Amino acid sequence: MRIATQQLHERAVSLMLERQSQLASTQQQLATGKRFVSASEDPTAAAAAMRLTREIASLERYQANADLAEAQQTAEEYALAEVTEVLHGVRELIVQGDNGSLNDDDRRTLAADLDQRLETLLGLANTRYGDEYLFAGLKSGTRPFSSDGRGQFTYLGDAGQRMLNVGPDVRTAVNDPGSEVFQGIRAGNGVFETAADAENTGSGVISVGTQVGDFVADDYVIAFSRSVPDGDMTYTVLDGSGEVVVGGQYQSGAAIRFNGAEVVISDAPADGDEFSIKTAGRQDIFSILHSAARALEVTGDGPQASAQRQIALDRSLAELDGALNQVLAKRAGVGARLNQVETQREANAAFQLTAEEALSDTQDLDYAEAAMRLRTQLVGLEAAQRSFLMIQDLSLFRLIG
């Protein structure tokens, strides 16, 4: 009988301690609002909660990056919109300056206006967002463009793009290097460029030309000559090696075609005048504006000055259109990236909501169930305590009695 009483005592103590442990666990769950406090309580759920917590943290970082990317891309889009507006204004000035009714003072006024707009354009190319230059590539702490004041413009940035992760396996560029926005613009009509020789004495004006087939790249010269003083004016197109490509009698305004190029020369070129055609090089936007301003400063209304001025301004207009197209293409690219960021932001938010709901299901406490369980455990503990007290009072003599 002594052994049985001891076993009952041990069982009662064990049961009471177990009920106390269960009650303490439930009380801790209610205090923390979590289904488990340590991973050992539910290793599978704890591992899932840890994975979901990391996933939510990653999504929050992606959202922060998306906010930063959107802010910088919006700043770039605004700057490019301003650049577009400046270039449209410049175009109007050049068209106005190509009016033969203007005098030298009128053209000098337009040239000064162009120079002012050139300074505005340089300022936009050096736009900053916070402490970073938008168009400096990866060298965001370096002012990207500088000018020597004499028509030489230097890019001090690089060709890199700053990238941000805005989603799982989704990266977006937050800037465009200035070399791709303000430089690399094809001269002339984009395929070849035309010019009049500086020694020309006639009033001949050459157009910017048109590509009419596969242009054969070379340095061509169109030379004008008259066999006798009052004879017909003829032209000869020579390639870079001096070989004759084509020739004929000159007619003002008639197209001259050769090797994929078509140009029109109008008015009256003089005997010995020459015009050049060569493969288009590349230049920056600032040089286009600078050249147009200098063309407007050419004085005089004589045939040579007028021809020189018109050729330069016509070329500037064609090159400015190329610059506008390049800037507009960059604006379209920024717009596409902004759409990408917004789409990814919405996807991140949806993923985050799903992950947070799953995390809540995994680790958050059901307060109603826990409260009911607490009441049940309190009743159980009280019963265990009463049982323990009853067993303590048992003795061999009281059983005999």
From TrEMBL:
A GO MF term: structural molecule activity
A matching Pfam family: Flagellin_N
Name of the protein: Flagellar hook-associated protein 3
Subcellular location: Bacterial flagellum; Secreted
Keyword Secreted among record annotations: yes
Cellular component per GO, a single term: extracellular region
Domain Flagellin C-terminal, first and last residues per copy: 319-393
Keywords noted in UniProt: Bacterial flagellum, Cell projection, Cilium, Flagellum, Secreted
